[in-house]
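Students often ask what a 'structure token' actually looks like in practice. Rather than answer in the abstract, let us consider Asparagine--tRNA ligase, a protein of 431 residues. Its sequence is given first.
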Amino acid sequence: MNKTTISTVGQFVGQEVKIGAWLANKRSSGKIAFLQLRDGTGFIQGVVVKAEVGEDIFLKAKNLTQESSLYVTGIVREDERAPSGFELTVTNVDVIHEAVDYPITPKEHGTEFLMDHRHLWLRSKKQHANMKVRNEIIRATYEFFNKEGFVKVDPPILTGSAPEGTTELFATKYFDEDAYLSQSGQLYMEAAAMALGKVFSFGPTFRAEKSKTRRHLIEFWMIEPEMAFYEFEDSLKVQEEYVAHVVQSVLKNCKIELNALGRDTSKLENIVAPFPRITYDDAIKLLHEKGFDDIKWGDDFGAPHETAIAETYDKPVFITHYPTSLKPFYMQPDPNNDKVVLCADMIAPEGYGEIIGGSERIHDYDLLAERMKEHDLDPAAYQWYAELRKYGSVPHSGFGLGLERTVAWICGAEHVRETIPFPRLLNRLYP
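Now compare that with the structural description of the same chain:
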């Protein structure tokens, strides 16, 4: 007998297999019991026919409780109606552990209840699908950057300075020094790019931002590439090719999960490079045309503004050349207009907001020193960063993609809290 998983049962059509699984749900109809089984790799229906298995096995199957763990033996059958294309004709059931009073039942539950039981909510079909899509995005990320010749570098999580100011950072003590949980690995990735050419990082970042919107988390994961000898336009090309690669990989490898989520995949099929671009100036004009009369040049965009701009396009859109006053100290000014910088935010369709922020970085030592002074940054804390401009400085660019917002957009999730295994929110540190 073959011991296998639900995701690979298609290799054993017509054969008897053994699967370790949990009972997600069940129903019975007279002398037939239908077991909804999951094993982490997927979901499958097990059909137990009393006349074929006998009284003892049938009663055991019929009396199984939700989330009990078991070994199920059965014959693999093709079934076009099943999401996976297969079902299991059960021949035997061995209970490993009987679950009692599982708290998340098939009825509706409130969000706070589900968040309190996040360790169990992860087992549900939609949450399982979210995590599988997240995993595919991560896999496709490594595939893309490895193929493009990038080297993965891991920046520190504890830092002594902040790339974008300390107002939204978690402070801690590093023995007798002040330290912060990283809000970005970018500055360190710039140093790595000067050594290795093209690099990327993938790790947790932290923002002490008191926001309760559906787009925000306190702890989230970022993919942050940096590229030596890449100017602004070069970086935009990498960004759109990367996002297109990720979306197409999910469409190819997560059909079952997207179906479980009820995702309209036609909206994703169109996500191929190149992406449209609009300058900040033109975005202001567009917003005025759409009735946002209060916004003026120099204002930052909020969620309603980003959504209104995104609705004009059926792909992610770059908003470029923001005012210098809105952006961090390290962004390169536009050589034709020093009131704006060579930066871009990529806005996802369907109201999911900014998923990428990026720019060409300042590579002139004197200009960087001037910007640091304007932002009241301690020169000693950033000495190492400034020195990158003293010893063989080159034009370079980079960007950061927020993983959870990207998962939310691709999955069609209502809130980013469902796109990370254990979300950290303004008022939630449990479980």
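One point worth highlighting: Residues 133 and 254 are 6 Å apart (CA to CA). Ask yourself how you might have guessed this from the sequence alone, and why that guess would often be unreliable.
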